[in-house]
Amino acid sequence: MMSNRPAEKRVLLVDDELGQREAIGLLLALDGHRVVQAANGQEALEHLGRESFDLVITDYSMPGMAGDELASNIKIAAPALPIIMITGHSCVMKGAENPVDAVLTKPFELGEFRQTVASLLARARSMRVQKSGFDEDGSADQRAWFQEKRARAEAHMIQ
Fold first, then answer.
1. Is the pLDDT of residue 159 over 70?
2. CA-to-CA distance for 26 and 28, rounded, in angstroms?
3. Closest to 74 measured CA to CA, from 45, 117, 52, 116
4. Helices 67-77 and 139-158: angle between axes, nearest 10 degrees
């Protein structure tokens, strides 16, 4: 018997607040997505160096690497990878230099969250190969770029 449920998508969820990660992660899992959680930007880049994702959801305000810096790094390697920014500071993400595809201001409505996730996944699916310049899903080139970025960051930390 065929299911009407959409194919499972891989979502990287980045937030320094454990409670927020768990709540949003549970919602995504209930909607049929496979969720990988990261507590900060550096951990997110490590995950991106090892595996591919269909969507990134990140908090804006995090110690070390803010969400907009993380998003900028992601867009360099994977311009077609959709990113949702969750923030309590609505004015923070305005302007042409915004590296994210959607911004949700806390507190957000459950329906708005689900619609944003579905919309970005659908849009990414329709333009994945045309604009990415990567292999079919971009995963091999993306992982290589993130691995190189992580190695440079680790070398810088050692010095």
1. no
2. 5
3. 45
4. 130
What value, to the nearest 5°, has the Cα angle with vertex 94 and ends 64 and 25? 55
Per the CATH hierarchy, to which homologous superfamily does domain 10-158 belong?
Response regulator (3.40.50.2300)
| 116 close to 28: Cβ distance less than 8 angstroms | no
pLDDT digits (tens, 9 = 90+) for 137-158: 555 555 666 666 666 655 555 5
pTM to 2 decimal places: 0.78
Give every strand in the sheet of 102-105, ordered side by side.
34-38, 10-14, 55-59, 83-87, 102-105
φ/ψ (deg, to 5) at 68: -70, -35
Token pair in block for residue 49: 């160096």
Higher per-residue pLDDT: 31 or 133: 31
Assigned token pair, 153: 């960051």
pLDDT tens track for 28-42: 999 999 999 999 999
Question: What are the residue ranges spanned by the domains of the chain?
Answer: 10-158
> Residues, the chain, total?
159
Q: Which residue has the tokens 């990261």?
A: 38
